[in-house]
Amino acid sequence: MDLTRIEAPDFELAMTLNSGQVFHWEKIGDGFYGMIGDRAVYVEQRGDILKVRFGETRALPKVVARYFALDHPLEEICASFPRDPVMDAARDFCRGLRIIRQPQWECLATFICSSMKQVAHIRQISQALRQRFGQRKQICGGEVFSFPSPEALARTTEKELRKCGLGYRAKNLLATAKHVASGEADLDSWRALSERQLRERLCELPGVGMKVANCVMLFAYERIAAFPVDVWIERVLRESYFVRGRKVTSKAMAEFVSNYFGAHGGYAQQYLFHHARLTGKGKSRGRSIDCCHQT
DNA sequence: CTCCAGGGATGAT
DNA sequence: ATCATCCATGGA
Fold first, then answer.
1. Nucleotide B2 C1' to residue A212 CA (A)
2. What is the SS3 assignment for A157?
3. How confident is the model over A25-53, as a mean pLDDT?
């Protein structure tokens, strides 16, 4: 095949695609099949080189490099993480993991579906939504489906959405799709908002609370200070950064992480999340770091 | 079989 | 302002 070569130093494709930020890339043979926006893509990694193809045409290196955030100064970002045993281990484990620049609606809709779901099941829901309501495209002998537009989902019913395994999340996804499709919620214009304003707007949408809002900010709005706290991260924080057995309010946790992990906290969070999920089930018995206010 | 998952909305303190 | 409870579903 005629694949476009793209320089991608300090990047791990497989780890990035399997770290729970995107849920639609499928590994077949040497590479991954998926979509970047509405473009069908095949991508494989050979050392520091990505080999890419877009549908039946050559890949646009600029689009690929932007999606995978190859311009992020990963060295600097990792160097800005706090030094402690848990963060050091995560930093070492996740070398080359980057925060992808996702399309806003795709990211928002997917994370509305993510509540109380394992990563494997979110992948299944994403795939079901794409197959049922998206557009089918060919790529390198395989087929992939685009993520359905807000309009496409706004046209359906809660009953139809439930067929994708959404359960009680169907109502929220449908309601938010309608808000976005009507233009009442203008996701693109929200780029200009401050971090606080953006979080407020997102949390007004049905099915979006603090955690999902922070995920969307981090993965779709380049707000790399945003620090989503899910069950895995909460476990890591409780077991390694707070006094064990002491009750910790979500407010105290939010205050701690914004002070301790700093301007690139979202990256630190993603490294901690991926490391915890793939290694210890977050149940490491290491000593607590106790570097926070222990109120 | 049971347990639990990248939580959010709601109503009671 | 915090807290408990319920919400569907399927992988492990």
1. 28
2. coil
3. 97
C2 C1' closest Cα residue: A249
Does residue A27 reach within 7 angstroms of strand C, measured from its CB?
no
Strand locations in A8-129 (E): 26-28, 31-36, 39-46, 49-54, 57-58
Cα first-last separation, chain A: 60
A288 pLDDT band, cuts 50/70/90, is low
Whole-angstrom distance, CA of residue A192 vs CA of residue A188: 9
pLDDT of residue A289: 56
User: Which tens digits make up the pLDDT trace of A85-104?
Assistant: 999 999 999 999 999 999 99
Helix (H) or strand (E) holding A7: strand A4-7
**Is the full-model pTM beyond 0.90?**
yes
Q: Which of residues 250-289 of A touch strand B (CB under 7 A)?
A: 269-270, 273, 277
At residue A187, the 3 state secondary structure works out as coil
Cβ neighbours of residue A155 closer than 8 Å, sequence gap 6 or more: none
The answer to whether A120 CB is within 7 Å of strand B is yes
Average of pLDDT values for A139-161?
Answer: 97
Cβ contact A279 with chain C strand, < 7 A: no
Q: Kindly report each contact of residues A155-163 with a partner whose C-beta sits within 8 Å and lies 24 or more positions away, as own/partner.
A: A160/A132, A161/A129, A163/A128, A163/A132
Q: Which residue from A176, A146, A269 is spatially nearest to A217, judged by alpha carbons? A: A269
Q: Is A123 left (phi over 0), alpha (psi -120 to 50) or beta?
A: alpha
